[in-house]
Design a protein that fits this description.
The complex is a heterodimer of chains A (496) and B (237). Chain A has 496 residues and is mostly helical. Chain A has a domain of 347 residues. Chain A has a two-stranded antiparallel sheet with strand order 1-2. In chain A, a hairpin with a 6-residue loop joins strand 1 and strand 2. In chain A, helix 5 runs antiparallel to helix 14, helix 7 runs antiparallel to helix 20 and helix 10 packs across helix 19. Chain A is globular. With 237 residues, chain B is mainly α. Chain B has 2 domains: 62 residues; 143 residues, no CATH class. Helix content of chain B is 71%, strand content 0%. Chain B has 9 helices and no strands. Chain B is extended, with a radius of gyration of 24 Å. The termini of chain B are far apart. The relative contact order of chain B is 0.07. About 3% of the residues of chain B have low confidence. The chains are: A mainly alpha (496), B mainly alpha (237). At the A-B interface, helix 8, strand 2, helix 10, helix 13 and helix 18 of A face helix 1, helix 2, helix 3, helix 6 and helix 7 of B.
Chain lengths: 496, 237
């Protein structure tokens, strides 16, 4: 009952404020649009908006990002289905069957299935999140100190390294590159300048906003520019017939299975939604009576993948809000929104900012529901939006990113850093590295070093102190086991 | 050599060289902290050590497996096609890289050359501005000449060039040319749509950020760019 009352309170707060309503619908439509426009993604929108959230209240800023997260994960399915370009890694399995459906003239059915299943997966996940996050947060206050947080960061990075790059080693090199960038500036304990090369700009560290903008928005434009030069853009066949209710009900088991998989994968601090989508898809193939039809345009493939990745969105908020640990690039940006308002996500948010938490929960619930209605209308209009040639979109995106990078601190050098990061991201991506890994390393690097230093001071610099803390020890062992498994896989399993 | 290619060795050398350079540099801040016995350099050195291990691991992996990725569908999750496009378009050879890095060097030349010239000739204020304008024109000419054979390289370098000039010439004066440049490099050649889209994007950006949100964009400080930027801001705000 208390949960319901809090949810009701959050809903009233959300919809009684005209600016809140505007931001909510802006986020719903923006997330879907950016997710659906080839060459950009919800991450592009989030990265562009990040500096401007400083001018919003913390409630509005976090709510906007959580709404973009929910609708953007769905929006990425549209490009996956229509162009074989996943809006984000978590939409990649959607393309396995979604794109063949488009080629068969069934784009409407595939998009319709994605709309319905994203909404179902996300809404169920949001409800579970409302009940589960607070108990986890209460427990975390007493059980999670700096050693546990550091161990969780280590585990999260170990999980993230195994997903996200062409090889395990490139996954780790991506994360380590991010950790290295995070080191630049003053050290968190003694305030000693590191890798500043006597440049005053570097004393404050490399700001994560220009870096994120560069690695995601700018490098994506460069990749698309190369595709344009190569002539790889292909216009899809359009079909606007939606799936019938009977067709959707026939896949109810796949939906339930993907919700369970998606939610549990989403809790993992790593790239949960990606893992969720792939596991959802793989399990659908494994349990199917006609596995050979997958990959050739089977609707169940789209349903399994899209239900699972949206089910992971609510779950991904649990480690973020309860423990302050981002599970992926967008939740990492949410940490940035918190930090811009001098707040830290974590257990104390539930005590100090309970209103904020419930506005976010309510917004995520309604954002997932709205996917059905707005998604249906948007799908009809996206057909026209997709006709905007990319050469006209690209300068707009680059200039939006320029304004976003400059607005952070009013420094033109931040714009330069962003474009250099874009070029580096372009070369790293074509070499099989993971830009998401770099950003995760950059964000978690600061938390990791700080909590490591606090943990070692707390344990009087005795490593054996970890043996007295079962959660921290368990997470470290899990992290090392993940690493060991990945190293074994890297050398002894057959390559693709 | 196993299945190693020259590219694999160059890639590993870059990581190892970077690690060595930064390790040597870390002695600059290898200072003790009273309350923290590991000091300021332990964390970055650990990261550098892990980079060395990972790059050697990557080299051994290439030695054994070659260019193959990790097994299973998971590797496809991040395969955005950029590697395939690079291979198909032939943008993987030494010539392309040299041409691209040559284009990328031009914006940095703009940052450094006027300062060197002004310092060598003891020029200040207006003289520096003139040198900057002359450098911009000359380097832009070189940039346009060389990008004819490498549009992708030009696309990578143009935003950096734009960012390098932003401080001096301002957003308001440069943005229209930047929009046209990006459209051109993306393959658009029709003058009328280019002009229409440029005006539309410029109007949207200025209307949204300058008029509505009061974001102070860089006006530059070199005349007449500075005058143009402040004139626009005065009109819109």
């Amino acid at each position: 009952m208390e949960t319901f009352n809090s949810f009701l309170g959050g809903t009233i707060t959300l919809f009684s404020d005209p600016i809140g309503i505007l931001i909510f619908f802006g986020g719903v439509v923006g997330g879907m649009l950016f997710g659906a426009i080839p060459g950009v993604s919800m991450l592009t929108l989030a990265a562009i908006l990040l500096p401007f959230t400083a001018h919003l209240s913390p409630e509005h800023g976090i709510m906007l990002f959580s709404v973009i997260y929910c609708t953007g994960v769905y929006g990425g399915a549209i490009t996956a289905i229509l162009f074989n370009i996943p809006g984000a890694p978590e939409n990649a399995p959607t393309a396995f069957d979604g794109y063949p459906m488009t080629q068969k003239g069934q784009a409407g059915k595939a998009v319709g299935a994605a709309v319905m299943c994203s909404a179902i997966g996300g809404t169920v996940s949001a409800v579970i999140m409302m009940f589960a996050t607070a108990p986890i947060a209460n427990w975390a206050i007493s059980a999670f100190g700096p050693p546990e947080i550091f161990a969780l960061v280590f585990f999260g990075l170990a999980v993230a390294s195994s997903v996200g790059a062409k090889t395990f080693w490139k996954g780790w090199l991506s994360i380590l590159a991010g950790l290295l960038v995070a080191v630049v500036g003053l050290d968190p304990v003694g305030g000693i300048a590191r890798f500043d090369f006597e440049m005053p700009y570097l004393l404050a560290g490399i700001h994560f906003i220009p870096t994120i903008l560069g690695f995601f928005a700018v490098s994506e434009i460069f990749v698309q520019a190369e595709k344009k030069a190569q002539g790889s853009f292909k216009a899809p066949k359009m079909g606007v017939e939606f799936p019938t209710l009977k067709e959707l009900i026939a896949h109810k088991i796949a939906v339930v299975r993907s919700i369970v998989i998606g939610f549990f994968c989403g809790i993992l601090p790593g790239i949960g939604a990606t893992l969720a989508a792939f596991m959802g898809y793989n399990e659908a193939v494994r349990w199917s009576k006609t596995p050979k039809e997958f990959g050739k345009g089977k609707m169940e493939g789209v349903i399994s993948s899209e239900t699972a990745n949206n089910a992971a969105t609510g779950a991904a908020m649990i480690p973020l809000l309860a423990l302050g640990l981002p599970g992926g690039a967008l939740t990492a940006m949410m940490v940035g929104v918190f930090q811009m308002h001098d707040m830290e996500p974590g257990p104390l948010v539930f005590i100090n900012s309970a209103d904020l938490v419930w506005v976010v929960f309510a917004a995520m619930f309604f954002a997932n529901l709205s996917i059905i209605f707005v998604g249906y209308l948007e799908t009809k209009t996206i057909i026209n939006l997709l006709r905007i040639p990319f050469q006209f979109l690209a300068p707009m995106i680059l200039l939006l990113a320029t304004v976003g990078a400059y607005a952070v601190r009013g420094l033109t050098i931040d714009v330069l850093v962003m474009f250099i990061a874009g070029v580096i991201g372009f070369f790293l991506r074509r070499s099989g590295y993971s830009v998401a890994g770099i950003v995760l390393g950059l964000i978690l690097g600061k938390i990791g070093e700080q909590t490591f230093a606090q943990a070692m001071q707390m344990l009087h610099f005795e490593w054996s102190g970890y043996f007295d803390r079962p959660i921290a020890l368990g997470l470290l062992i899990a992290g090392f086991a993940t690493l060991g498994g990945s190293i074994y896989g890297a050398f002894f399993k057959k390559a693709k | 050599m196993g299945k190693l290619r020259a590219g694999h060795i160059i890639e590993a050398s870059l990581w190892l060289g970077l690690s060595l350079f930064l390790y040597i540099y870390s002695f600059e801040f290898d200072k003790e902290i009273e309350i923290y016995k590991f000091g300021a350099s332990a964390w970055p050195r650990t990261i550098l050590l892990l980079i060395v291990i990972a790059s050697i691991g990557q080299l051994l992996y290439h030695y054994k497996v070659g260019d193959g990725g990790s097994s299973g569908k998971m590797g496809d999750a991040v395969d955005d096609g950029s590697q395939d496009i690079a291979n198909e378009s032939g943008h993987t050879g030494l010539g392309w890289y040299l041409s691209t890095f040559g284009l990328l060097a031009i914006p940095f030349a703009y940052i450094l050359i006027p300062e060197w010239v002004a310092s060598a000739m003891s020029i200040e204020d207006t003289g520096v501005h003139i040198i900057k304008i002359i450098s911009a024109v000359v380097l832009l000419g070189i940039f346009i000449y060389y990008l004819r054979s490498n549009f992708v390289g030009g696309m990578l370098a143009l935003p950096i060039f734009f960012a390098a000039m932003l401080q001096d010439m301002g957003f308001y004066a440069l943005a229209p040319f930047f929009i046209l440049g990006v459209m051109f490099l993306m393959g658009e050649r029709r003058i009328k749509p280019m002009m229409q889209v440029m005006l539309l994007i410029y109007a949207i950006l200025l209307g949204l950020f300058v008029s509505l949100l009061y974001v102070g964009l860089p006006t530059g400080y070199i005349h007449p760019f500075y005058d143009f930027g402040t004139w626009i801001v005065t009109i819109l705000q």
